[in-house]
Amino acid sequence: MEDRSRNFNYDALDEGDKGIVHWVSEILWREFYRHIIFNYPRVSKGKPFQMRYEDIPWENNPEFIEAWKNGRTGIPIVDAGIRQMIETGWMHNRLRMIVAMFLSKNLLVDWKIAEEFFMKHLIDGDIASNNGGWQWSASTGTDAAPYFRIMNPETQSLRFDETGEYIRKYVKELRDCPSKEVHMPSNPKEFGYVNPIVDLKISRQKAIDVFGDWAAEGKDEGMEKNHSKPVKEMIDFVLSRKEEKFSFLEKSCFFCVLEPSQSRFFTFWRHNPMVGFNGQ
């Protein structure tokens, strides 16, 4: 894979054609999550990677869950994503993050419920990647999104679907809604659409309070000890070879075999100028 990718991308793997670079990074994430599920099989058994979040007080409101599963939350970009997945069996990765974070944070619904729902509908459903993605969004997984960093669906919609073309395609109630309104209609009933089931600002703060209180109580029973040792050993090894250029596959191995709860090395790996690809 390395040689073919380099040939198509002018002998570069972390620069050049953005599509190829992004594709390679997604392959790495896939392999990373497969290493996680192999080395930490509990994540395939309904357990969070970060065990301190095992007993988060999810609300699991049945009405919210059904509204989300049927694409009737009143949040256009969320509903469009869910409806696309149900209709076609696929959803863009950006949308997967948006709908996942909305469910686990704004609605405070247990990620495991939606993990199963995704696997039921996605034609490209991968057990390890799906689990890793959901735990990332719910802030329970490896190198997860901080619990206080919650995507705003409306902002994401404005950024990635500026004219509302995608929303109108899958949320047909809004096909005649003007662009300035389509991301969050002020009067959704006018178009036969549903009202938002939660206020984005209020629900965001509620999630921050719930996760913040849980983190402050220091509920870390069951967490692995000595996480920093393998990370330190790997960094020492890399620095001992600082004059050398590492190959793409070597870097992939470093990324996958490290103690995965540590994000420090991944940041180091990407930004340390002494650790480059062969030929660069």
How would you explain this protein's 3D organization?
- The protein is 54% helix and 0% strand.
- The chain contains 14 helices and no strands.
- The protein has helices at 2-8, 18-39, 62-69, 76-88, 93-106, 111-121, 127-137, 153-160, 165-170, 179-182, 200-216, 228-240, 248-257, 264-271.
- Helix 2 packs across helix 7 and helix 2 (18-39) runs parallel beside helix 13 (248-257).
The backbone outline, from C-alpha atoms, is globular
Low-confidence stretches: 220-232, 246-280
How big is the Rg? 21 Å
Question: How much helical structure, as a percent, in the residues?
Answer: 40-55%
How much of the sequence lies in strands comes to under 5%
Structural class of the secondary structure composition?
A: mainly alpha
Q: Average the pLDDT over all residues and give the rounded result.
A: 79
